[in-house]
Specification:
Shape: globular
Number of helices: 10
Distance between the termini: 36 Å
Cofactor: FAD
CATH class of the largest domain: Alpha Beta
Protein name: Ferredoxin reductase
Largest sheet: 5 strands, parallel
Number of domains: 3
Mean pLDDT: 97
Keywords: FAD, Flavoprotein, Oxidoreductase
Radius of gyration: 22 Å
Low-confidence stretches: none
Strand content: 25-35%
Strand order of the largest sheet: 3-2-1-7-20
Pfam families: Pyr_redox_2, Reductase_C
CATH architecture of the largest domain: 3-Layer(bba) Sandwich
Oligomer: single chain
GO molecular function: oxidoreductase activity, acting on NAD(P)H
Structural class: alpha/beta
CATH topology of the largest domain: FAD/NAD(P)-binding domain
Length: about 400
């Protein structure tokens, strides 16, 4: 490893920007180039579905570090440029315009893209997805008071957009193909809670529903379901998950599964190439190196630190517990961990009071916690997972006992 190595980062999102900063912080002094296909410096995406849509913040405030930071740290940022190929033997990347850039180490941080619907009418105007600043700008201009919004997909993005749209005075309908909201990413108690909250806010929720087609001439005017129901709308948002942008990696012959496969240093099957962020299919040390693809800011930051330390030859940072959050209305959800092989749930607190937590246990070990307006449960659950502490389910459910005092022992 070398602090003088030539480094190219493909992807100027949160992960790519954080890595560039980390490399300099960890002592790297060599040439460093960040290439992004959007016309913006690295920025944060979580506010796009919330504060940006509601007009509470502008896109300029999303920028993580201003241009002066990159200039002062001798980091070249190429915005609005696309990499067309990776030559692993020659160790260079080719830009769409034909220019070639050499590297000693290459980092892929290309993120994920929204999954598209392959149904008739999906190409009509005002059928939108949300991933980047330009997507948010288009959606924000379409979200007007009194207009009708159909959201396809009852995941976190769809529900966050629903909350923002209701705050703007829109009529909102969420269509979910599964039997409940958040079916792939949250517990049933949490899904039931969010359904009640959204319905109280005036959102119509339709479950167990598959789309047939979109209706419209140029712009979408309705969503049709397979049971022949027609939902009139002025705007539609599709939020049915995301796919890793791994085309460059696959074309270069890197090992890919659900994203680019990496090790604990975020290194790919090529020792000179790393992959981080939403793109990477990575081992989770706190779960026995189980492989998983995470879509979260904390994951991007953790892997940025891993790669920076690996490149400059410093020890690998301590493993972290995966965590996530979501803001909807005045409700803060914090999640720590993943419920791998959990065999029971313990609900602590009062869902009807919008302050509770769902602990996912495997035997007496906490695998994950979902905390609604309950930061102490989030903190306790995160520590339980990291320490692999054994807990008493009855004590955990007892609100007279602090969550952190439910531990029995640490193996």
């Amino acid at each position: 490893m070398s602090i003088e190595s030539k480094i190219v980062i493909i992807g100027a999102g949160h992960a790519g920007g954080a890595l560039a900063a980390q490399l300099r912080e960890q002592g790297h002094r060599g040439p460093l180039c960040v290439i992004g296909d959007e016309p913006y410096l690295p920025y944060q995406r979580p506010p796009l579905s919330k504060a940006v849509l509601k007009g509470a913040t502008d896109t300029e405030s999303l920028i993580l570090r201003n241009a002066a930071f990159y200039q002062e740290n001798d980091i070249e940022v190429r915005t609005g440029q696309t990499v067309s190929a990776i030559d692993r033997n020659a160790r260079h990347v080719t830009l769409a315009g034909g220019e070639s850039l050499p590297y000693d180490f290459l980092i892929l941080a290309t993120g994920a893209r929204p999954r598209q619907l392959a149904i008739p009418g999906a190409g009509l105007a005002n059928i939108l997805t949300l991933r980047g600043i330009d997507d948010a700008a288009r959606l924000k201009s379409a979200l007007q008071p009194g207009r009708r919004l159909a959201i396809v997909g009852g995941g976190y993005v769809g529900l966050e957009v629903a909350a923002s749209a209701r705050a703007l005075g829109m009529e909102v309908t969420v269509v979910e193909r599964e039997a409940r909201l958040l079916a792939r990413v949250a517990s049933e108690p949490l899904a039931t809670f969010y359904e009640r909250i959204h319905q109280q806010q005036g959102v119509q929720i339709i479950r167990n529903a598959n789309l047939s087609h979109f209706e419209g001439d140029d712009h979408v005017t309705a969503v049709h379901l397979e049971d022949d129901r027609r939902l009139a709308c002025d705007v539609a948002v599709v939020g049915v998950g995301a796919l890793p942008r791994d085309e460059l990696a696959r074309a270069a012959g890197l090992h890919c599964e659900n994203g680019v496969m990496v090790d604990q240093d975020a290194r790919t099957s090529d020792p000179a190439i790393f992959a981080i962020g939403d793109l990477s299919w990575r081992p989770l040390p706190v779960y026995g190196d189980r492989m998983f693809r995470l879509e979260s800011v904390p994951n991007a930051l953790e892997q940025a630190r891993q790669v920076a330390c690996a490149i400059v030859g410093k020890p690998r940072p301590a493993a972290e517990v995966p965590w996530f959050w979501s803001d909807q209305y005045d409700i803060k959800l914090q999640i720590a961990g993943l419920p791998f092989d959990a065999d029971r749930q313990v609900v602590r607190g009062a869902p009807e009071q919008s302050k509770f937590a769902v602990y996912h246990l495997r035997g007496e070990q906490v695998m994950a916690v979902e905390a609604i307006n309950s930061p102490l449960d989030f903190i306790a659950g995160k520590q339980f997972i990291l320490s692999q502490a054994l807990v008493c389910a009855d004590r955990l459910a007892n609100m007279a006992i602090k969550a952190k005092d439910a531990a029995l022992a640490i193996p």
